[in-house]
Write a structure and sequence with these properties.
With 362 residues, this protein is of the alpha/beta class. The protein has helices at 9-19, 22-29, 36-46, 91-102, 116-120, 136-149, 167-172, 190-194, 202-210, 217-226, 239-247, 269-280, 295-303, 313-344, 350-353, and strands at 48-51, 65-67, 70-72, 76-78, 106-109, 126-130, 153-157, 231-236, 252-255, 285-288, 308-311, 357-360. The radius of gyration is 19 Å and the shape is globular. Residues 1-362 form the FMN hydroxy acid dehydrogenase domain.
């Protein structure tokens, strides 16, 4: 019997689990260590009670949102995720195409399995996500390439000095299929991501060789000077780091623990969000990711002070299930849920949601 169509993002998870090889499911789904942070992300969001306002005269909410000076259809972006062709043969092109259809930003990972020019050719608003290459000259070349290709922002991820210990991948001896390569990495060394080293995943070996582990604030400043694109710093939890990022030129920060895939035991992003918002004030935009699964979660993040959220795994589930059309449906469901949530909370738009009070339901 065919499955009923998904009515929420969690439905895509159930379907994706049936279509993806178990090791690929684990690679996408898993966190690091004991996955304490992975589950804390959900618990923290579930504990955010939002106090709706009544009699506000709102019938239908508008979702339109301004981020980094550009207009988007809703306060949601597709989080940067590596190697999207492991989830579906059309990979990055399908997911970026869905982001274009939904008019939301698509954050392209430096570890994308499709050349960035093909991703931009979908017409999506692409923000390029960088892990710092060991060779500064190559970083500068790559920045020139993505600038030329038409990327709208540069996102530097700062929570991966080394790859988190992902036990599921270690147990599964997960390695990338040979046809999946990092299509934008100069000097590739994809052989490393396909190989086998006992006790460490090939993806971690590859990252360790390609990326510089010991970055500092001076490097971030240098990066901002190299490139006139708006700079976004992703992977911040400590409010003091958020302030330093702004001082170093960031136009936005993403409060994120990488979906529980990096240091296990760090707090949920939603737990740290209010402190980060208070610390930076209106000096930069604040986005949140890690654990967002519904329009109500987006409302929670807005009420805690975020301008927008990024959604990770659910986009890969939808991609795996239905390619571009599946991902488009996933984003449309999120928009419908958020529209309803805003109206139910008495908010005319996302800005009004940032005025809502929250209470802990823990
Ligand atoms: C399979 C997978 C690959 C990822 N690859 C990257 C990446 O290349 N760069 C990056 O900054 N974050 C990467 N992330 C982290 C996401 O950008 C995002 O922070 C996280 O998935 C958000 O949590 P969520 O999946 O619970 O929504 C990846 C996450 C997953 C699940």
């Amino acid at each position: 019997m065919p499955s009923p169509p998904p009515v929420c993002l969690a439905d895509f998870a159930d379907l994706a689990r049936t279509v993806l090889p178990p090791q690929v499911w684990d690679y996408i789904d898993g966190g690091s260590g004991t996955e304490t942070t992975l589950s804390a992300n959900r618990t923290a969001l579930d504990r955010v009670g939002v106090l709706p306002r009544v009699l506000t005269g709102v019938a239908t909410a508008s979702l339109r949102t301004r981020l980094l000076g550009r207009q988007y259809a809703m306060p949601v972006g597709v989080a940067p995720m590596a190697y999207q062709r492991v989830a579906h043969p059309d990979g990055e092109v399908a997911l970026a195409g869905a982001a274009r259809d939904a008019e939301v930003p698509y954050l392209a990972s430096i570890l994308g399995s499709t050349p960035i020019e093909q991703v931009i050719a979908t017409g999506a608003e692409v923000w390029f996500q960088l892990y710092w290459l060991r060779d500064r000259g190559l970083v500068a070349d790559l920045l020139a390439r993505v600038r030329e290709a038409g990327c709208r922002a540069l996102v530097v991820t700062v929570d991966v000095p080394v790859l988190g210990r992902r036990l599921r991948d270690l147990r599964n001896a997960f390695r990338l299929p040979p046809e999946i390569i990092a299509a934008n990495l100069p000097g590739g060394r994809d052989d490393l991501a396909h190989g086998g080293t006992p006790g460490v995943t090939p993806v971690a070996v590859h990252g360790g060789v390609a990326f510089a582990p010991a970055l500092s604030w001076a490097d971030l400043r240098w990066l901002g000077e190299q490139c006139d694109l708006p700079l976004v710093v992703k992977g911040i939890l400590d409010p003091a780091d958020a302030v330093r990022a702004v001082d170093a030129g960031a136009r936005a920060v993403v409060v994120s623990n990488h979906g529980g895939r990096q240091l296990d035991g760090v707090p949920a992003s939603a737990t740290m969000l209010p402190e980060v918002v208070a610390a930076v004030g209106d000096r930069c935009e604040v986005l949140l990711d890690s654990g967002v699964r519904s329009g109500v979660d987006v409302l929670r993040a807005l009420a805690l002070g975020a301008q927008a959220v990024l959604v990770g795994r659910p986009m890969l589930w939808a991609l795996a299930v239905g390619g571009r059309a599946g991902a488009r449906t996933g984003l449309a469901l999120l928009a419908d849920e958020l529209r309803d949530a805003l109206a139910l909370a008495g908010c005319a738009d996302p800005t009004a949601a940032r005025e809502l009070r929250t209470v802990s339901m823990g």
